Amino acid sequence: MISDLETGRRRGLDVADLIVLAAALRISPVQLLFPELPRGSVDVLPGRPHESHDAVRWFAGETGLFASSGDWETGTGESAEVWTREELAPEIDRITVTRQWLRAIASMRGAQSQIKRALASEEPREQISTLEDLYDDARDRAEKLVRQMTELGMDVWEGDPRV
Q1: Is 44 a residue whose pLDDT tops 50?
Q2: Angstrom distance (rounded) from CA 1 to CA 17
Q3: What is the pTM of this model?
Q4: Which of 149, 161, 44, 61 is nearest to 112 (CA)?
Q5: How far apart are CA 24 and CA 21, in angstroms?
Q6: DSSP-derived 3-state class of residue 154
Q7: pLDDT tens across 97-150, in order?
Q8: For residue 41, what are the contacts with CB-CB under 8 A and spacing of at least 6?
Q9: What is the Cα–Cα distance from 119 to 37, expressed in whole angstroms?
Q10: Would you give the DSSP letter of residue 138?
Q11: Long-range pairs of 9-17 with CB within 8 A, sequence gap ≥ 24
Q12: Is 44 in a helix, a strand, or coil?
C-alpha cells in the first residue's frame, strides 16, 4: 500500500486502509491525517486552513472549527475580519455527552474507592458523609447523561454504573 502511494499507482486511502496503516506504524490514525502537529497548517476543508492541533481537536469532537464571521466595523469605521469558533451541534453531539458520562462514572468509582478506604480506616463520619455526597452527585450526573444519551438514540448499558 505504501509503495503504491509512493509510486503514484494509488492516489488515496480509505478509512480502513488508514486505520491498518496507523496500526502497522503503531501511531494514532489522526497523526496520519495531521502529520505537522502541533502547529503545522492543514486544510481541514477546501480553502479552510487550520493549525494541526485545532484540526485534531475538531476531528476528535472537542471543539468546532474557526470560521470568519465576516467583516466587523471597528470604532474608527474601518472593517476588520474576525474569526470565531463554530459550535458543534449540541442536539446531535454524541462525543461531548459520552466524555461527560465517562467522567461521571470515573468520579463515582473514585468516590466509591475513597469511601471504602475511609470506612476501613475508621475516618470521621463527616468525612465519609462528604464522600457519599460526592458519589451521589456523580451518580446523579451519570443518570442525567444516560437520559440525554438515550434521547440522542445512543445505546447505553442500563446496568448499575457502580459496578
Answers
A1: yes
A2: 8
A3: 0.64
A4: 161
A5: 5
A6: coil
A7: 999 999 999 999 999 999 999 999 999 999 999 999 999 999 999 999 999 999
A8: 49, 50, 51, 52
A9: 47
A10: H
A11: none
A12: strand
Q: Give me the residue label for grid cell 466587523.
A: 72
73 forms beta bridges with: 79
Q: In b/e form, how buried is each residue of 96-135, taking b as 16+ CB within 10 angstroms? A: ebbebbeebbebbeebbebbeebeeeeeeeeeeebbeebb
Residues 6+ apart with CB under 8 A from 85: 63, 64, 65, 66, 67
- State the amino acid at position 17 in one-letter form: D
8-12, 40-44, 48-52, 103-107, range with the lowest pLDDT: 8-12
pLDDT tens digit sequence for 56-108? 999 988 888 888 776 677 778 777 777 788 888 878 888 889 999 999 999 99
Collapsing DSSP to helix, strand or coil, 50 comes out as strand
CA 137 to CA 145: how far, in whole Å?
Answer: 12
